[in-house]
Amino acid sequence: MNKPKTSPTDDQIPNTVNHACPTGTNHNCEIPEIDLLSPLTIRGITLRNRIVMSPMCQYSAEEGLANDWHLVHLGSRAVGGVALVMVEATAVSRDGRITPGDLGIWGEQHIEPLARITRFIHSQGAVAGIQLAHAGRKASCEPPWIGGASLKTPEKGGWPVICPSPIPFNEDDPMPIPLNEAGIDEIVFNFETAARRALAAGFQVIEIHAAHGYLLHEFLSPLSNYRTDCYGGGLENRMRLLLRVAEHLRQLLPREFPLFVRISATDWVEGGWDIEQSVVLCRHLKDIGVDLIDVSSGALVPKAHIPVSKGYQVPFARRIRDEVDIMTGAVGLITESSHANEIITSGDANLVFIGRELLREPYWALKAEHELGAKSSWPTPYGYAVSR
Predict the structure, then answer these.
(1) Do residues 291 and 335 both lie within one domain?
(2) Fewer CB in a 10 Å sphere around the end CB: N or C, the chain?
């Protein structure tokens, strides 16, 4: 396997190096190479490999409540060998849902249905994580299989949507309502109370969704934030809301539990959010105590030209990892185990987030073990049969 391109870190050490051993004698010591199937410890949580189920909206809840669909959808990927099962974007307030079918965590009633899922995930040796989100101006829409159009009126099931500045996502969408400072404070409070409920439900990793054109990303980008107060204008001001949310969540999480942030590294539009600003943001997030940046891109504006191709977002994860010295996750058209393994062994990222390929193949991680020549870890009820 390839050796890392970067200097070794605590979770990335070449296979055989000439170094001072504990005995004080310099000689070659065999140290396992870090690859896709190597465990990773972040704070007090150890992941059994580097494979994460990326959060993927199912639009299948009623009033935000998780149900049997979510249990089977998420639980089957834990059975299938991924290390971290990340629950889809879960709304921190009722009006923060993308669609009426989004999962929610704005009330105490949401805790137990989610706890049922975390208990099963943990029983299968995986770790349960949750992505906390507010859809901002992209809220109040139909499910995508109906068309995803804005639900423009209460009669159609819609609700008023909020934003940094009065700029709709689509030209024919209703005008979103800009948040005042009291409204911004309420957003921070909603994320905090949602995180407390997530802990009560048994989640051990929390991710803040600040990507894909949703509310926190809207504050970051100059394309959607025209404010003239302390939350708009220069980069320091546009970062302020996300940094407040991250600081509040880091303070309330137990020290042993990791905090992730998903960002869009670029808007793919001239004059918008870009990788240079992302690097600055990630330095601030690291200082707060964020442990990993989940690096995606785009979705702030509807007509961006995105050069979609195999692993097209991986270079952003690499740059943030190198320049900020923070762990990163790579996501986006990662479908083959050999490619995922190369991302880890080359030092491009610490984790790979697998999305649609896990929808096609729930046992992708277990098949990756076979393809990479590792010992099989199929669950006992399956293992005796598939090993014949």
Answers:
(1) yes
(2) C
